[in-house]
Amino acid sequence: MASSLDKSNQKGFGTAPVFFTSISTILGAILFLRFGYAVSNLGLLSAFSMVLVGHLVTIPTAMAISEIATNQKVQGGGVYYIISRSFGITIGGSIGISLYLSQAISTAFYIIAFAEAFRPLFPLLEPYGLHDINLRFITIPCTIGLIALVIYKGADLGIRTLYIVVGILFLSLISFFVGTTEFSENLVKIDWSGHIEGGDNFFKVLAICFPAFTGIAAGVGLSGDLKSPERSIPIGTMLAGIFGMVVYMLVAYKLSISASLEDLASDPLIMTDISVWGPMIPIGLAAAALSSAIGSILVAPRTLQAIAEDEVLPNSSLNQWLGFVKKDSGEPLHASLITSVVTIIFVLIGDIDIVAQIITMFFMVTYGAICLISFLEHFASDPAYRPVFKSKPIISLVGALMCLYLMFKISVTYTFIALVFMALLYQMVRHFTPNKEGLKAIFQGVIFQLSRQFQIFLQKTEKDDVEDHWRPAVVCVSRNTFKRFSAFNLVKWIAHKYGFATYIHLIDGYLSKETNKNAQKDLERLIKISEASDSKVYLDTMISPSMTSVIAQVIQLPSVAGKENNMLMFEFSKNNSDDGLKQLIDNFKLMSVTGNDICVLGSDERNFGYKTEIHIWLTPKDLENANLMILLAFIIIGHPEWNKAKITLLACFPDAELESRREQILNLIKTGRLPISKNNVRLISRADNVDMKTVINSTSQDADLTIIGLRLEAAKKINEQVFYGYDDIGDVLFIHTAKRKDIS
C-alpha cells in the first residue's frame, strides 16, 4: 500500500503554494461577508482590537508551527504530524481527529460562503418567478462537483487553481480600495469608536470572524507535498499571517470611512457598493471561497489518512481502509470520501454563522495545543529539540493562554463541550494505542527542568539552617526493606507534607554486573511499593560490602530538596539481637562528622499499631533532643494515616526534682523553646532504685510509637544494650540531635 508519508509521493511544491494557500484562506469569506458586520457592531477601534486579539492566537501558532517544522522532518498530515510527533500518538491522535473535523467542516463553511456570492444575481431571477431561492440549491451541487474534481485531479488541481484564484482575489481588493462613495466624500471626521445600538458583543463577533484568521495554518496541510517543508512552512506561513493582518486592518478602516454603520450592519456585501466595479467583489468572494474550499478538501483527507496510518482509530480494518491511497497519484481516496460525507452534512445546516462558531472552537483547541507543545519543548530543554527557526517560549505561552481564555469568553457551554469531547477522544485513542504514549516524555523533561532550577535556587540560598524554618531532609538506609516496611513507612510519613526523604535499600556485596542487575530489579520492586502506598519518597539502591562504606557515601549524598541531608535514619528489629546494631554504633563517630541528626528505629511486630498515640520521653540527662523529638512527632501526625493521633510528652524525674523540673518545662513551653502545649505534658516521678526502661515499658505499653532521646556517649559506652530492653512497648524511635533546635 502506498503511503503519503513516502517521499516518492511528494509533489515537490515550493514556498509559494504555502503562502498562497494560507493567504487565500485568510482573505476569504469572512473578509467579504462579515467584516462590515464586525465594524458596525464593534466600532473601528474595537475591530482593530479584534484583529489583534485573533492574531495573538494565530501568530504564536504560526511561529510554533514554523519552529517545530524546522526541528524535524515534517511529512504528510501537516499540523497533525507536528502534534503527534511532538506530543505522541495518543495526544496527537485525539487532537488530530478534532483538527480533521474542523478542516472538513471548514470545507462546508467555504462552500456556503461561495453560494453567498450569488445573492446579487437573485433579483435578476425574480421576473422568472424565482423568489427566496434556498442557497442549498447552489451549495449541494457545488459540493458534489468539487468532491468529484478533487478526487479525480487531486492536489495538482488545487495548486493550479490556486494561482488563478489568488489573482482574482487581489484584483477584487484593489477594486475595493480604489473605490469611493458619496459617504466617504462627505465624511468630515472619522468616528473611531462608534457602533450600532444593541449590537453583538466583542466575543460573539470574534467567534464569527475567527475562522478568517485560521487560514494561517492552511498551507501546513500540504507538508507531504512540499519539496522542503522545513523551509517553505516557516517562510510561507509567517508571511501570510503578517500580510493578512495588515490587509484586515486596512479593510476595516476603508469600510468605516466608506459607509454608514447601518449600511455595514444590514448589507453583507456592502463592499460591492464601495468597489470601483461592483461585480468584482462577488467574483472575488466566489474565488476566495472556492480556493479555500479546495484547500480544505485537499488538506482534511490527508490529515485523516495520516491518522489512519498511525492506527489511531479503534478498528484495524478501518485504519487500513482510510489509509488507502491511489497508486498512480498518491491521493487518499477513501479519506476523501469520508470527508465528502462530513462536508455535505454541514452544508445542509446552511447557516454560515453557526458553522463559523463550531469551527472556531475546534481550531482554538488545536491551536492552543500547538502553542502548548512549543512552550513545553522550550521549557523541557530537550537536547534533541534544535529548530532552525526559533520562537520565544513566552510567545507560545501567550498563544496557549489566549486560546483557553477566548474559548471561555466566547461560550462557557461550548468550551466545556469541546473539552469533554477532547477528553473522550483522548480516552478512546489511549485505549486503542496503549503503547504509543508521548506526553510522558515531554513532561518528564519539564519536571526535570523544574527540579533542576529549584535545586540550583535552593543551593544558592543561605546554607546555614535558619532554625525557625527547619525541616527534615532524611536519608534512610535499610537492608531489610522487603522483610519489614517500618522504616519505609516512617520516612513516607515524614516526607508527606513537611519534609524530604530518600530511602536506600542496602544490598550486601561488591558491585558487579550481576549485583547491579539485582539492584535494578529491587528498585523496580521498591517503586511499585511506593506507588501503591502513594509515597513522596525518592528511592534508590546501594551495593556495599560494609556499613562503614555505606555511611561514608550516604552522608555525602545531596538531598532531593537540593540542599544537604540533615538527618540519617537506620532500622533494626527489637526481636533480633544480631541485626547490625553493633556496626551502626561503631560508625556513630563517622555519622556525626557532617553534623546530621541521627534516628534509629527499633521495629516491632505491632507495626505502629492503630496510629493513635505517640509518646515522647524526656529524662534528666536528655533535654537536648526534646525539640527534635517533638517536631518529628508533629510531622508524623501530619500524615492522613495518623490524623487521629495524640502526642504526649512524658517527663520522668526523681521525686526530689519533680516540682523544679515542672517549673522548668512550663517555662520552656511558655517561652516557645519547647513547641508543645502544656496540656500534652505528663510528669512522672521515679524512685532512685527504679530503672528508666521499666518506667517506659509500664507507661507506654499501649503507645503506637515511642520516641526516646539518644545520647551517643551512652551508646558507645553501653553498646547496643542501650537500644534493647523495651520489650513491652511497640515501635521505638531513638533520636539524637546534632544541634539543639529552639523552634517557636
TrEMBL record:
PANTHER family: GH08340P (PTHR11827:SF72), SOLUTE CARRIER FAMILY 12, CATION COTRANSPORTERS (PTHR11827). The keyword DNA damage does not apply. Residues 18-437 form the Amino acid permease/ SLC12A domain. It is found in: Membrane. InterPro entries: AA-permease/SLC12A_dom (IPR004841), SLC12A_fam (IPR004842). The chain crosses the membrane at residues 12-37, 43-66, 87-113, 133-152, 161-181, 201-223, 235-256, 276-300, 332-349, 355-376, 397-426. Keywords: Membrane, Transmembrane, Transmembrane helix. This is Amino acid permease. Pfam families: AA_permease.
